[in-house]
Amino acid sequence: MLIIENLKKSFDGFIAINGVSLSIQKGTICSIIGPNGAGKTTLFNLITGHIHVDQGKLTFKGVDITHMSPNRICRLGIGRSFQRANIFPRLTVFENIQAAILVFRGMGFNFYKSVKSLFLEETEAILKMVGLFDAKDEMSISLSYGAQKQLEIGIALASEPELLLLDEPTAGMSLQETKQTIELIARIVLEKGLTLLFTEHDMDVVFSISQRITVLHQGKVIAEGSPDQVRNDPYVQRVYIGDVR
Ligand code: ADP
Ligand code: MG
Description:
The chain is α/β, with parallel strands linked by helices. It has helices at about 40-45, 70-75, 95-105, 120-130, 145-155, 175-190, 205-210, 225-230, 235-240; strands at about 1-10, 15-25, 30-35, 55-60, 65, 80, 165, 195-200, 210-215, 220-225. It has a 6-stranded mixed β-sheet with strand order 6-7-8-3-9-10, with helices on both faces. It binds adenosine-5'-diphosphate and magnesium ion.
């Protein structure tokens, strides 16, 4: 589904992504792990077109997306969540999802008042999927941290992605919230037949739901494989995860 070939990105001479190659198979749950500063977020931003690629190639569903705009890449089917940045705090939960659908369908958000009756079923379906149907009339600003993260995922789903990128979807969550959110994500991915690429610091979560794990270290892939392969890789153990048994 996604082929990353020899990707490179520097910031003012600092090499953040240093020749990353990776393939993501359709319908799989894949994670990228690595210490802070390894380049995980940068890699996501390169995939979604939010920062420019210096060198290398990105191919999604056979289409070269290396130099495409974020908007076109999103329309091709790569969705992501943006840590709360795109939640409208003074809209209700329902309105936030509806607005995201409207924007994706090319209806200007300016016309919101006149399009209030559009996409009601689509909005409700997403609310149910992310477990926020009962909270649909609450102001988004009043949601708990965990519920805001659920809303972010709902907003990402409004663009009907085939490949969903989630950058630390459980950051800042309690253990209980983390567990619930991960169960939710796994269920949605399965139900919708999505492909998931996510980053996560909680190794229990990573090893419990990933089918493939890529370990990034100083902008390079140092290991890639099944959870067992990665867990037992001596180099990975030495530089990063330690003993995660
Ligand atoms: P991770 O998400 O794995 O923690 P990042 O991709 O955020 O890592 O960052 C990788 C490295 O690139 C870090 O050293 C970070 O400081 C640097 N970096 C990321 N974005 C920028 C930027 N816009 N300008 C300069 N340096 C950046
Ligand atoms: Mg990051």
